[in-house]
Fold each of these.
Amino acid sequence: MAASRKRFLGTLLTVAGKSAAPEERDGATAAITAVSAFRGAWAVRVHDVGSSLDAVKVAARMAAVPKTQAVPKMQ
């Protein structure tokens, strides 16, 4: 998977008719990376490795929480 900062992410993040610039797409890249990893992607290519790795770790931890257990509230 190589979705890092791609145009489709900019389009998804469009505000007031203006697409997000590539450097504004790292959050979306982290999100799509986590979804891709969760769905079994073998590898991903990203610009910001740290953010994407954090997103994958959080998604994996959240996926491991039993559905009967309450998810901690965000403050």
Amino acid sequence: MATQCLCFFLHTKEKPKAILRLPRLIFILMLYVLKIVGTKKAKEEMFYVVNYLNEGDLEEFFKEKILKHTFFDAKEELIKRKKKDTQ
């Protein structure tokens, strides 16, 4: 999950300044591993960039990064659920 988060930061086109928050993310994740910071705070930091992406960027990231690294069975299940949700 951490590698996908890093890819997410690097994938941002509209907000390249988001990469400046990467050291903060690494610090927060280390605190999370040491159980100093809770799960909520760690997730907030990891998905900080989501606030600044539009629907097209999110869809592109999902297709390029997430689907390519998921198992075939999991892909089928994700696509099936997506179709079910849109109907």
Amino acid sequence: MSSKESELELIRQERQRILAEMKDVQEDLADVERQLEENRPDFGLGRGSPQLYEWEMNLARRDRLQGRVEKLQVALDRIQEGKYGICVRCGQPISAERLAVLPATQLCAKCARELAEQRKKRRGPHRHR
């Protein structure tokens, strides 16, 4: 098998893995949506509900799952465009090890580190009270 064929096979396998993860995430999302619909707490004035905390946790979980679906879709789009595994910041290949752990990543490890450092500097030093 040539290098190009090997690369195409790895991309095909990655696509299948992302599709499987997408299916799992979408099933989880549907379950959370169902729970939110079935377990809507009473928000009446002066009336609380122990279900309120659980409902809010499900709202947060739904948001995280929707974000995951969006990232996985971007990864699938990048596969379709022939850009999967290429860093959007520097244009260099993203390591197979990094993609194995973070299949939806668009940044190589170096660029991800640099961006994290930039964010950290923008936040400034932590203040102790």
